[in-house]
Amino acid sequence: MKSTLHIRAFVKLGHKLQESLYSTDNNLPLNKAIRKSHELNPWFTPTFYRLAIRNFLPWLEASKLSKWVEKYQSPEKSMKTGIIMAGNIPLVGFHDFLCTLISGHTAMIKLSGKDAYLLPAIAKELIDIEPAYRDKIHFLDKVPNNIEALIATGSDNTARYFDYYFKGTPRIIRKNRTSLAVLNGDETPEELEYLADDICTFFGLGCRNVSKLYLPAQTSLAPIIEALAKYKWLSSHEQYANNLRYQKARLKALNIPFIDAGPVLFVEDAQLNSQVGILHLEFFNSIENVKQILEINTEKIQCIVGNELNKSLNLGSAQKPDIGDYADNVDTLKFLTELRS
Q: Given strand 149-153, what is the order of strands in its sheet?
């Protein structure tokens, strides 16, 4: 795919974002947007905003972008592509933003009300670098009826609505998913600290956050609890602390046993999804049984981390996807480059 202009612009954007991240100038547009975003949504702390940016900065390297796009064909023409973004973690829709623009399409973006300031600030930086994007990026209160393609991320309920309302439009519709860890019991303290990142980053609000652990029978939880101590500061966050108190009270009222592991509560439960602040545990005697469960629930799982399964990601990498790691395993760039009018 011929994307020289796009690659050059996004590389320059990466440099600009990196400069802002390490600047102490609070008046820089990026830093202002982070501050304003946190005032809007206290769950999106400056620490986690900056982490979200650092996690995707490696995508914006010239060699990485060139290698990524080289296997795709250029689309026939630019098409109006609606992007309905989720707001569960900071800048969760940036990859869709990047895919749409680098493939030459026009992005018609409906932001989440929970994350309404930072992406527009980043888009302005991109337009300053390459003015041609001025006509390619539109932030709207709702996705217009005349879009020619759609990428939408939301809950299972909103997915049904999107599928019905845009049934005549080429689309990618994403539903609820969660992520898991399968341990072998021989993890090092360093690996367990990486696991703590997979669990606690962004307060556990993302679909790539680990919500459940599969553990060999008789595995001691003490080393995991020790590793989680690095996130004890989460309990000083007002909203998260209130949530933890609520979850403890709820579990006690329902007579559900739990272990207070500091930043999260451990509950033995077969369910894959857990509520914010709770980590489900399931002990196994046979890894083959775990494999069967995971196979049955493939459509509900975003990613798996750990050393036990061949296709698992490394511990600590759940929130650090590569540029070619597509949400729900649906190739977004392939979808966009193969659109036909």
A: 137-139, 106-110, 80-84, 149-153, 171-174
